[in-house]
Amino acid sequence: MQSKLSDINLIEQTLAGDQSAYADLIKRHQRFVFTLAMRFAKSREDAEEIAQDCFVKAYRSLESFQRQAKFTTWLYSIVYTTAMTTLRKKRIATDSIDDEDTFIQVENKPSGYDENNVENKSRSFYLNQAIDQLLPDDATIITLFYKGEQSLEEIAQTMGIEANTVKVKLFRARQRLKDKLERNLKHEAKELI
Fold it and tell me: What are the CA-CA distances from residue 122 to residues 40, 55, 115, 126, 129 (Å)?
């Protein structure tokens, strides 16, 4: 059964002409690729487009994959560059973090709280909500480090920056995430009372 094969074995089978091996590779990694794409795109349609483009680009470039690195690191670097290219093409307007109106908009943004679904609220919900409010680079680093379980070096390779820079960015992203969580949970606590 191919699902028990390693990524490298599936790549070798794909390069030998077995299309079902690549389909297994996609199944294995599609959830995380989509999650990472959502961190950039913020809309399901754009994330689906980015994820699909990534797997097409990965397939076309599979022969150039260096087997010394993990396949996931290589694939996530494709996700990162594809997402950045897609966002540049769409010219999504972004506000400066120093812009006071941005903070007012974020603070006044509805939390998505629904009294009928209180039981569905969980740590994961609040964490994902806070991550969605972060800048794309912060969200990417947090996602790769915690959900992708990548090392600082792997993240550096994925994002095309130095490992020490990743370490600093991860520290700052954690701080921003902590602030967002505290702000969101304080807001949610007020609504629960």
Answer: 23, 32, 14, 7, 11
pTM above 0.70, yes or no: no
Q: Does domain 2-90 have CATH number 2.60.120.260?
A: no
pLDDT in tens, the chain (193 residues): 445 888 899 999 999 999 999 999 999 999 989 988 888 887 888 889 999 999 999 999 999 888 877 888 889 889 888 888 887 777 544 444 444 444 444 444 444 444 434 434 466 777 777 888 888 888 888 888 888 788 888 888 888 889 899 999 999 999 998 888 888 777 665 554 4
- Looking up tokens 């191919």, which residue turns up? 2
Q: Which CATH entry fits the domain spanning 100-192: 2.40.50.140, 3.30.420.40, 1.10.10.10, 1.10.599.10?
A: 1.10.10.10
Pair of tokens at residue 87:
């966002």
